Amino acid sequence: MRVPEDTIKANEGLRERKRRQTRERIADAAKTLFLERGFDATTIEEIAAAADVSKRTFFDYFPSKEDVISAWQDRFGEVMAEAVLARPPGESLIKVVEEALIGSVLVSAADPQALALGKLIRETPALRGREQLKYVKLEQKLAEALAARTPDEANRLRTRLLAMIVVGGMRVGGECWHEDGVPEDVEGFARDIFAAIWSELAAFGRLGGEC
Asked: How far apart are alpha carbons 166 and 146 in whole angstroms?
């Protein structure tokens, strides 16, 4: 099982804690500047100055500005994986996936900075490719977390397929979200997406039986 982040922070040494704090300070400074000035208009020198580090130190933690965005996007996958592993033992994978992902989406939707950064990514050509990569990483994270709950090798294909289907549904739901604006009832919107996923899978199963 995954060790909770709070436990990792409690057990880390002074050097590791300082590195984590420096990385977080750089990332926070970068995100603030991106939202104030735009991604393309923000320089690495400005980020380093705002974080009170040297340009060299910036590169010790992030190879590029784009990698700051990737690190922020990866955090959603980590939260999602932690939520999957925290679900009660014996719960069905369908229930685990739906509740864990909806909980993670609600946390993200309640963060104004997260919403603003998502909008920035979609509106910045240099970052749009990262948005697609985000879903690839999410699928991998979800598959790994589900596999950790069902370590039997016989279930490995099943968990990978479930992760692929669910993340695909998330992508479609995200596109609808961005086209129509943030829904007033985020949880209701997310549950409607899951209801559509499960309904269509059942329909495909019936079609398969007719062939």
From this structure: 12
* Sequential DSSP letters for 140-169: HHHHHHHHHH---GGGHHHHHHHHHHHHHH
**For 33-57, what is the mean pLDDT?**
96
Residue whose C-alpha is closest to residue 165's, from 207, 198, 208? 198
Tell me the C-alpha distance between 185 and 96, whole Å: 21
> Which of the four pLDDT bands, split at 50, 70 and 90, describes residue 40?
very high
Residue pair 129/70 in contact (Cβ under 8 Å)? The answer is no
Per the CB < 8 A criterion, the answer to whether 65 and 41 are in contact is no
Domains of the chain: residue spans and CATH: 1-62 (1.10.10.60), 64-210 (1.10.357.10)
CB burial class (10 A; 0-12, 13-18, 19+) of residue 28? Answer: middle
Averaged pLDDT score across all residues of the chain = 87
Kindly list the distances between the CA atom of residue 179 and the CA atoms of 123, 144, 166, in Å, as whole numbers in the listed order. 13, 31, 20
The contacts of residue 128 (CB under 8 Å, 6+ apart) are 121, 122
**Token pair listed for 135:** 């879903």
Note if the pTM is more than 0.85. no
pLDDT above 70 for 42: yes
Q: Which of 9-13, 70-74, 176-180 has the highest mean pLDDT?
A: 70-74
Write out 174-209 in H/E/C secondary structure: HHHHHHHCCCCCHHHHHHHHHHHHHHHHHHHHHHHH
